[in-house]
Amino acid sequence: xxxxxxxxxxxxxxxxxxxxxxxxxxxxxxxxxxxxxxxxxxxxxxxxxxxxxxxxxxxxxxxxxxxxxxxxxxxxxxxxxxxxxxxxxxxxxxxxxxxxxxxxxxxxxxxxxxxxxxxxxxxxxxxxxxxxxxxxxxxxxxxxxxxxxxxxxxxxxxxxxxxxxxxxxxxxxxxxxxxxxxxxxxxxxxxxxxxxxxxxxxxxxxxxxxxxxxxxxxxxxxxxxxxxxxxxxxxxxxxxxxxxxxxxxxxxxx
Length: 254
Known about the structure:
The structure is a single chain. Residues 1-7 have low confidence and may be disordered. 11% of the residues are buried. The protein has a domain at 8-162. The chain has helices at residues 8-18, 21-31, 39-93, 98-232, 241-249. The longest helix has 135 residues, at 98-232. The protein is mainly α. Helix content is 87%, strand content 0%. It is rod-shaped and about 210 Å long.
């Protein structure tokens, strides 16, 4: 049902039976856009669909009644037409009064005259029911389209959140890498400090060599002094008391 022409008859039919509700239903169908509708729009659409579904249920009951009236009236007319032949025979035989036959004929003619109206009422009820069914179908389709759009939107939101989490994770990893880079810078500083320590060690080794060179003449002089001192000491140095007595007494050890 198109927005331009599909709800024209609907608006007239529903307005005829329910006043301004017909225009509201027609506007709901014509103006609802699932791609741009909000949740409030959906709620209004659901409310309209619910009201229309109730009308559809009522119209179905009304059509069933109208259809039953037509069927019953058609069956009554058919039976009376078959009975008319027998009544003619009985009237000719004098077994039934002319007044009864006249009443029967009046009712048959009245029912035949009423049948087109009943058929028209049945047709109107069916047309009304069919239009309401179209409305329910259109509203249901729009509601389904809205829900489909909402589902896509939720999926897009979920994908966006996943991308956001991914980018946050990337940022965290970049920060970790930056930290590792800083650690590498610290390692470079430690390497420089190690090289400095090695240079100081090398300087200390050089000073030690210089000191050793300067100490060597001193050590040699001390060695010579020790030799001289040992030569200048008397031979009696270090003798025991017994050895000294013997030396003084002029005796030598045996």
